[in-house]
Hints:
The protein has 10 helices and 8 strands. It has helices at about 25-35, 50-60, 75-85, 120-140, 170-195, 215-220, 225-240, 245, 250-255, 285-300; strands spanning about 15-20, 40-45, 65-70, 95-100, 145-150, 200-205, 265, 275. Keywords: Oxidoreductase.
Amino acid sequence: MTRWNTSHIPDQTxxxxxxxxxxxxxxxxxxxxxxxxGARVLLACRSESRGLAALDRLRSEVPTAEAEFRPLDLADLxxxxxxxxxxxxxxxxxxxxxxxxxxxxxxPYRTTADGFEMQFGTNHLGHFALTGLLLPKLLxxxxxxxxxxxxxxHALADLDYSDLNxxxxxxxxxxxxxxxxxxxxxxxxxxxRLAAAGSQVVAVAAHPGYAATNLAxxxxxxxxxxxxxxxxxxxxxAVAQSPDGGALGTLCAATAPHMRPDSFIGPRSGxxxxxxxxxxxxxxxxxxxxxxxxxASEQLTDVHYDFDFSRPATxx
Length: 316
């Protein structure tokens, strides 16, 4: 994996991929590079106008791309269910790659359409529900992978199971860290359950290091804090790597051969550079934690995973 870059992406012809949050930043680069290597890519984005603009841009940069856009709002479980229901006509029963990339960061307190704290609800619960609803397609596809994008900032906080929605106390960066810890715990527990079912689907996590995307400025922009927004932009220019660099971890996790389940792939230095196995906080690999989060997530989303892949996907 030393000095891995996009030239190492194997031919993706005949493979299909869903990328959430693909209208900009790391998600867009991920979708573009998969399409460049021949994958059929679906851009799943909350904003129709931004999603269609991204699709036009991708087609201009990769004229041979097989790509399309469909609306998906991960902060609305009805939208997640509607999106999953429309995928029957996307590459039949198969799905080779699900890239759980979309997310929000350090927002002022908000709730989702279903009443969950926005960061936990979008970053974790939305993707938990989406993966469960698309699991039949993944189980029916040899070599399928699920890649969930977390963050090195997960190490700031373990989950508080007595207050998953930060109802008692809300600190935006702690809430973000907890949602990213939830991403890693989800991958750990999903990997464990897939292995127990005898499935060859590989679930892995990735992180971008410090990448210059609009994620970092979204919260302060919502509050109209112009000086803070400018400060973040200055730090981005001085320290952050480009979205192209930030997407390397996701692309490596999605396409590198012989990827170990439950890996966590990101820049070797932690902030930037070629992908490698990354540090993860010890609470993100505890089976008891994973089981507890899984049970809570099923209850909150009303999505229950079916790991029986002995039946055709259309029969589930």
